[in-house]
Amino acid sequence: MQPNGNGNGQHIVDYQDVQPVVINPMDASPAIFRAGLDRRKENRKTLMDWIRSSLVEGRDFGSIMINGKQSKPSLLKPGAEKIAGMLGLIPRFPNLGRYEDAVLDGRSITNIILKCELQNQIGEVIGEGVGARSVETQDNGDLNKALKMSAKSAMIDATLRCAGISEIFTQDIEDMQLAEVEQLKPEPMQTENQTEKMASEKQLSAIRALIDHPNVYNDEKRTLHELLEGGNMSRQKSTEIMNFYYGVQEYQRGSGWVKVSTGKLEERRNH
User: Fold this and answer.
1) First-last CA distance in the chain
2) Which of 36, 66, 90, 203 allows an S-S link to 199, with CB 3.0 to 4.6 Å?
3) What count of other Cβ atoms lies within 10 Å of the Cβ of residue 168?
């Protein structure tokens, strides 16, 4: 765009040529929108090529055997650090201070949910993730270990989301309970009083594992954390949660447990 002169040495801008600021990419002009998609597509291809050529299996990512089959590769902390570093992003944990203050005040901590923000050089948040741990159940009361594991899971979650690489990696293999969790069967309803019973430790462990699962949304993780914090979850409530995420299963004579509906984890993994 060239400004027009008015003969007095002043320049007049034709505002019809000025491109307005666009908040929603879908509101951009077709040419600008197409150019943006092409640029991001090329940049993402470059990133994926770098990941495949630079990350080392067994050190930066790994997998385990589940039912005799190799699991989806899981991103490890060294790999997440490499990716974040190459993107020029710095991990920050904005709510870590709350747990430090709780320890200094002598308050007990049973569960931890840490938020990780990946920030660029000027402090803008480019991506974020969440990591959660049960201090007693998962780390035998070792608060220092629980904090480190929560921070690690949160950073890996943030890296997966920020770089858009969930299609090739899942969460940290050191925290994965999927081999056991995804085979967990809801207990059948046997008596009218069963709904009043407390959730079993097996059910609670499955729900805790959901907090680390990449296909559970952040707001859902917070809700699950609050339910676990309450300490009085019923067996009926825990069964409802597992049915929602893992799908409904029924016991059929001669066949055992058979899945009759798809859960949210499987639905989201297929999209």
Assistant:
1) 43
2) 203
3) 14
Token look-up 């998962």 returns: 138
- The structure tokens 């825990």 sit at 238
pLDDT at 178: 41
Q: Which of 225, 222, 78, 77 is nearest to 157 (CA)?
A: 77
* Whole-angstrom distance, CA of residue 89 vs CA of residue 160: 13
pTM above 0.70, yes or no: no
DSSP E strands in the chain: the ranges are 4-5, 11-12, 61-62, 65-66, 69-70, 74-75, 90-92, 111-119, 125-134, 249-252, 256-259
Minimal CA–CA distance to 117: which of 85, 145, 133, 95?
Answer: 95
Angle at 75 between CA 74 and CA 78, to 5 degrees: 140
Strand partners, 102: none
The two structure tokens encoding residue 114: 């840490």
Token pair in block for residue 127: 């991506």
